[in-house]
Write a structure and sequence with these properties.
2 domains
Length: 417
């Protein structure tokens, strides 16, 4: 395995000078090129750039910056990369208080630390997700540590070791579960790893726009089965895109495919967890909550779980109830609602009632993982104690997860909206 290498990203003076000069010349965010958008998104992590920006702001040479690019941002980040191969890895690192850790882009590995100390978790390098990806894909460990400016962090404290015999929790689903690669979109599957202890990995095969049938067509189920071991788990939650496909109605293709997947997993000595689809946000003009939009698929998932005697995590019921408690205005915080100019390239407001903000994804993950702790006793000890229970009628405050540095921003809504 190649030696690990640490980099402190985006400390490039040339990039700083180019971006600051571009801003000083009065260029507008919405008319910027993709390359300059990327530079702007990184400015908060460049020391020289911050100094120059403060000077320009004080002189009135440039307007106020969007929040994500604020040079007074609380966190700095450091990045770790190491080549690996398909399998599970135990990771440990000593962190200061108030730190976060992400891996593989924007997947949360460590939630905000309440005290300085050692943190441990298990991650998986999945290899190719689909039959079209080349061998060797997705086999690099990429970790980003976020800590407050001024806090000491010893980058040599990170340790990586192969983990043998560790179970894997595979996730299969759509855009409400997938690992969104670009800010500001997020889904619960990319938050869930932080809620588990060392001793189990979470491998997310979900992708935006997929139904059970198209998940199969892309070869994602085959890839899961290729490496699936006795004692592993598969969490299945679909419905949003099955709803749009002829022949995939709840009583037809949807139920049939769920049963086929269960048979394949159980034949390999595995365990299946059924999830109902997360509900969409809907409110009437008078401010009252609108009807559910995925009732049929939620009912079909419940029926299959009951008939096959499998654990059921009712994301549909809990998400609908949470949005109702938060109300018409408050529930927008769960979804990806952005005003124009919120990030570079966004010229119009985005009001997405299907896909989630980072905060919303975090809350949906709280629902999902607490449901797993309740319905799957064997996994409860592998869930961090804080996340074993959750009252979805009393949502958390925003966890304040900082944006990732190398992923960029995307103005387009995820597939399946």
């Amino acid at each position: 395995m190649a030696d690990a290498s640490w980099t402190r990203p985006y400390r490039c003076d040339y990039a700083a000078d180019e971006t600051v000069g571009w801003l000083a010349r009065g260029q507008k965010w919405e008319n910027s090129s993709p390359s300059r958008i990327a530079l702007a998104a990184r400015m908060r992590y460049n020391v020289r750039m911050k100094t120059q920006i403060r000077t320009l702001l004080a002189a009135g040479a440039i307007a106020a910056l969007p929040a994500f690019a604020d040079p007074s941002a609380e966190y700095v980040s450091e990045r770790f990369e190491q080549q690996g191969e398909i399998g599970n890895y135990d990771i440990s690192v000593t962190l200061p208080k108030g730190a976060f850790v992400k891996f593989d882009g924007r997947r949360l590995a460590v939630d905000r630390t309440s005290a300085a100390g050692r943190q441990e978790w298990t991650l998986r390098l999945p290899g190719p997700y689909t039959k079209r990806e080349k061998p060797g894909a997705n086999t690099k460990i990429v970790i980003e540590v976020f800590h407050r400016k001024g806090d000491a962090f010893d980058k040599s404290s990170i340790k990586v070791a192969r983990s043998s015999g560790t179970p894997t929790l595979y996730l299969a689903g759509d855009s409400t579960m997938t690992d969104n690669r670009k800010e500001p979109w997020a889904s619960w599957g990319q938050m869930a790893p932080a809620f588990f202890k060392k001793g189990i990995s979470v491998s997310n095969f979900a992708r935006s726009g997929l139904a059970l049938c198209t998940f199969e067509e892309e070869g994602r189920l085959d890839r899961i089965l290729e490496h699936f071991k006795p004692g592993d788990y598969l969490f299945i939650a679909f419905g949003h895109n099955d709803q749009k496909r002829k022949g995939e109605e709840p009583e037809n293709g949807y139920t049939r495919r769920l049963n086929e997947w269960i048979d394949k997993i159980q034949a390999r000595g595995g365990n299946v967890i059924i999830g109902t689809p997360i509900e969409r946000r809907r409110f009437r003009k008078d401010g009252t909550q609108g009807p559910r939009t995925l009732d049929g698929y939620a009912a079909a998932a419940r029926a299959v779980a009951e008939k096959r005697k499998l654990p059921l995590v009712d994301l549909n019921e809990a998400s609908y109830a949470m949005m109702g408690v938060m109300g018409e205005k408050g529930s927008t915080r769960l979804q990806r609602w952005c005003e124009a100019g919120f990030f570079p390239g966004l010229t119009e407001a985005v009001n997405d009632n299907t896909h989630h903000s980072v905060y919303g994804a975090y809350e949906m993950a709280r629902i999902a993982v607490a449901g797993i702790a309740e319905k799957v006793p064997a996994l409860k000890p592998l869930i961090r104690e804080k996340y074993r229970s959750f009252n979805h009628l009393k949502p958390d405050p925003d966890p304040g997860i900082p944006p990732s540095t190398g992923c960029g921003y995307d103005v387009r809504k995820p597939a399946g909206n």
